[in-house]
Structure formats: C-alpha cells, structure tokens
Write a structure and sequence with these properties.
Elements (H helix, E strand, L loop, with lengths): L16 E10 L8 H19 L2 E7 L2 E9 H13 L3 E12 L10 E6 L4 H8 L6 H14 L17
Parallel strand pairs: 2-5
Antiparallel strand pairs: 1-3, 1-4, 2-3
Length: 166
C-alpha cells in the first residue's frame, strides 16, 4: 500500500517544500470538551486534512500553548497555517520560522502528537509576546529542536501519540 504522503504517490510532493514552526496560546473558552478530548479532536482532524493536502508534522501541547512544525508543499503549508490561525482554539498564532527544505524530516507522517506537557514554559509566552525580541527564526529552530528531541528513539511508522494524555 502506498502512503498518501509518499513523494512517489503525489506530484504535489515533487514541487517546492517548506517547514514552518509556529506557537499559539490555547483558548480553552472555544473548547467543546476538556483539554484531552480537544487535543484528540485536533489530532484526528489534522491527520485527515493533512493526508489530503500532503502536509505533515509534529504537535505539542505545553501548559496552555500549542507548538507545531508543519512541512510539505509551500502553498499547502501556508493554507494550513491560515486555517489554524482562524481557529478560535488558537490565540496569538505566531510563525517563528519558515524555511524551504529539500526533503521532509517526517515523510508519511500526517501529524504526530509528541506530547502533552503541563510543565510551565515561560519562554513560550516571550515568543508570542515578542517573537523578534525572543530570537525570531533562531527561537523557531530551538522550538523545532525541542519537538524533534521528543521523537528521538521513537518510531514514527505509526505515530498517533508519542506523549501521554493523562
């Protein structure tokens, strides 16, 4: 069976690709349920949508913030981010890094949840309040490294959850 995100199965993946790193503050007032059920809903929707648009990446919930890496065809990544930025569950959506890439780091991965972390991360507030002052693209790379560090040692063959929903 050919994966929908396999470059051999789609001409979309043969064109220019990019990676985008963003963070947003969670707006729990827009949630239909508790944080766990909402994260599951977001993950399921993302995986379905991303398979159709050839976008993939990693998602982390960290103490009231979403942090995400999106990668795929440039136009599809930009459209996905625009949709996310309009989602009322997100506030202060802030792109920290956008870069062209030669190849994807997570081919075949429509979206992996890399963790649900209740540990306070004051640096995330700084990123959203003043992304350029907090380091801009360099801060985006550091955030990407933090997300990627969470997948070290894990197989991404079937990446529904790498973190625990308690």
């Amino acid at each position: 069976m050919t994966d929908a995100l396999d470059p051999a199965s789609s001409p979309l993946l043969a064109g220019p690709q990019c990676r985008m790193v963003y963070a947003s503050r969670v707006n729990t007032d827009a949630f239909e349920g508790d944080i766990q059920s909402e994260i599951l809903r977001i993950l399921e929707t993302s995986q379905r949508y991303n398979r159709e648009t050839m976008v993939g990446g990693l998602l982390l919930y960290a103490d009231g913030y979403f942090c995400q890496i999106l990668e795929g065809p440039i136009e599809a990544v930009e459209a996905t981010y625009e949709r996310i930025a309009r989602d009322p569950r997100h506030q202060l959506c802030t792109v920290l890094l956008t870069e062209k890439i030669e190849r994807r780091r997570y081919p075949g991965i429509p979206m992996a949840l890399v963790g649900v972390d209740e540990t306070p991360h004051p640096e995330l507030q700084g990123l959203l309040d003043d992304p350029e002052g907090a380091g801009g693209a360099e801060a985006g790379r550091e955030l990407a490294n933090m997300l990627e560090a969470r997948i070290n040692g894990h197989s991404l063959e079937v990446p529904m959850f790498l973190g625990k929903l308690n």
